[in-house]
Amino acid sequence: MANGEESCRGLVLRSTDIGDHDKLLTVLTAERGKLTICAKGAHSLKSKYMPVSQQFIYGDYTFREKGEGRWLKEGSIVESFFSVRAELTRLAAASYMMGVAEVIALEEEPDPELLRLCLNSLHLLAADKYPVSQVKAVFELLAVSGAGFAPDLGSCAGCGKRTPYPAVFDLAGGVVFCSDCVKKREQAARFGEAEEGYSVPAPLTPGVADALRHILSGADNPFAFRLPEEDLRLLCDICERYLLLQLDMNFKTLDFYHEVTAS
Q1: What is the pLDDT of residue 125?
Q2: Rounded to 5 degrees, what are φ and ψ at 66?
Q3: pTM score over 0.85
Q4: Where are the beta strands (DSSP E) in the chain?
Q5: What is the dihedral sign for C-alpha 91, 115, 139, 100?
Q6: Rounded to whole angstroms, how far apart are CA atoms 182 and 211?
Q7: 89 CA to centre of own chain
Q8: Pairing of strands 175-177, 152-156
Q9: Domain boundaries defined on the chain
Q10: 87-263: which CATH topology?
Q11: pLDDT per residue as tens digits for the range 25-47
């Protein structure tokens, strides 16, 4: 592009105020991963950059690299996901998911799958098609799996037996144990002969086990499943705890989400 300008299409994960006039945009792109772009004067309602400098905007951006920075020159909206802001629970969930994506994404490392996951999740939150907690859980499991922490749900880590109904998911190890191995470990522990086993166990019901496998199966729509309310709560707890353990961090936006959903 002329004059040393470059273009990208990406999703604004975060928009940070700089002083009284400017914004710093964290943009997730398919081809270059995470990019940081400064939008001069974007605070002003009269600025041409203001509409494209908001969180959740998916747009086309033209910028110029100068020194170690990137400076926005032009921008246009492809999709705004504005309706996500209309309801506090959806807004809180979306903000949290964008924060997770920002942590996982790397600069100059292509990540089309993470971008696609973010866009699909925002689409579903905006459409209000599935429960917010379900969209959040699927996002968490797929995001952390894409970051290199995919759990192994195929067979029991104790005996190798393939079973459709594992009894325990080890959140730290990312593996499952069948009912027989759980009983053996519990019996051995009672007699002071504890075997090496799970470190952060989470009980699994058949429905939750099937849902986890569906999410990770590569299905066209990993969000499309139904669970009873109790099973859905268990699934959401498992996916959230698994992501936090594997990434070894907490998110203030997650705290806000829980405050909103608890009220």
Answers
A1: 96
A2: -140, 120
A3: yes
A4: 5-18, 22-29, 33-39, 58-66, 69-79, 152-156, 168-170, 175-177, 201-203
A5: negative
A6: 21
A7: 16
A8: parallel
A9: 2-79, 87-263
A10: de novo design (two linked rop proteins) (1.20.1440)
A11: 999 999 999 999 999 888 777 78
Encode burial over 105-118: b for 16+ CB neighbours within 10 A, e otherwise: beeeeebeebbebb
CB atoms within 10 A of CB 258: 12
DSSP letter string, 46-57: T-TTTGGGSTT-
User: Strands 168-170 and 201-203: what pairing?
Assistant: antiparallel
DSSP 221: -
Most confident residue range from 10-24, 66-80, 136-150, 163-177:
136-150
The residues facing 132 across adjacent strands are none
Largest CA distance in the chain: 75
What is d(CA 249, CA 222) in angstroms, rounded to the nearest whole number? 25
* Tokens (6 digits) for 237: 């707890």
The predicted pLDDT at position 1 comes to 44
User: What is the per-residue pLDDT across 78-92, written as a single tens digit (0 to 9) for each?
Assistant: 999 999 999 999 999
Q: Locate 138 and state its tokens.
A: 């699927």
Strand duo 22-29 + 58-66: pairing: unpaired
Q: In the CATH hierarchy, which fold is given to the domain comprising 2-79?
A: OB fold (Dihydrolipoamide Acetyltransferase, E2P) (2.40.50)
- Cα 24 from Cα 40, distance rounded (Å): 9
**Cβ neighbour number for residue 97 with a 10 Å cutoff:** 25
* Consecutive H or E run containing 143: helix 132-144
How many C-beta neighbours within 10 Å does residue 235 have?
A: 25
pLDDT level of residue 189 (50, 70, 90 thresholds): low
- Residues 100/251, Cβ–Cβ less than 8 Å: yes
